[in-house]
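Check these lines:
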Amino acid sequence: MEPIPARKIRVLVADNSVIHSQLLANALQQDPDFVAVSWNANFSSLVSAVVTQSVDILAICSTFAGHAAAGLKIVRELRSLHPKTKAVVLLDSQEAQLVTDAFCAGARGVFNRESSVEMFCKCLRSVGRGEIWADNRGVSLAVDALASIPIIRTVDSAGLNLLSKREFEVVQCVVQGMTNREIAQRLGLSQHTVKNYLFRVFDKLGVSSRVELLFITLGPNHDAVHRPSEPPVPGEALRQMLQGEQQNGATFDWLEKTAEQGVPAAQVFLAEALAARTDPAESVNAYMWFLIAAEQGRQAREQLAKKLTAAQIEQAQQRAGIWLRRTKPTVSLLAS
């Protein structure tokens, strides 16, 4: 017999329609172990509602508010901002990719809609106890999918020594924000040859786009990419490159994951990429990532300040003020 929870489990149900959410929440209310409420507002404010209402488990459809995989995006956001709240993803079909995507997003359980309400209650109790839930088919699909994933070699900027001299020259041009045409002109190559070099660079460094390559060069050892006479990565060039690639789902997903891992540069560029979109909900997400990056910066600054004297702090503030006044027309972060 399953142990009775010490207190009722608070569940917020966000299904793909208001009526489905209400029906599922009402069904859960019949079980004495749960307090269930349904979500019937804009999905962009769902995560903040989960936090303010002290929800234990969010049960959310993978396809939410008419947007494919929007539910998984909310799960990732919830894991980043409030990891104590667990998520169960409601699946219309048990495709291997969908199951693995749900767990990769941070779900603690996946539930097939074709199962019964009784089984759903069992799923929520298991997740409430800190367990992972999937039925036998879901587990089998996840294991098969994981077994088929190739082992990928990932390297940091120190791995640039894997590159040939010409490949390294191409990377230097990418770092300076050059297009393939400009790289070809600089190095006396055809654009087709430049593409081939980039493909080989991507393969050697374990990245899939110019954006990911640039973030490697922004790592702890990124000085190896620059010659003394060459400028660092122009921020505007990276922004333009990201905006040009944001239609690439894999690249954008990678950027989101990097931001969630706490990389401030990724958080800022993700915020700017989201702000460039027309969807009002994306503007909210953009502002959220700006706030997260600013907060992480504040915490790091406070830790560093403990190691400095008052005079050193004042000197740094003066230098920062000079830089900000000089670059104010081009600074876009948190601009009003």
Summary: The chain has three domains: 9-147, 152-244, 246-336. The first helix runs from residue 18 to 29. The chain has a mean pLDDT of 75.
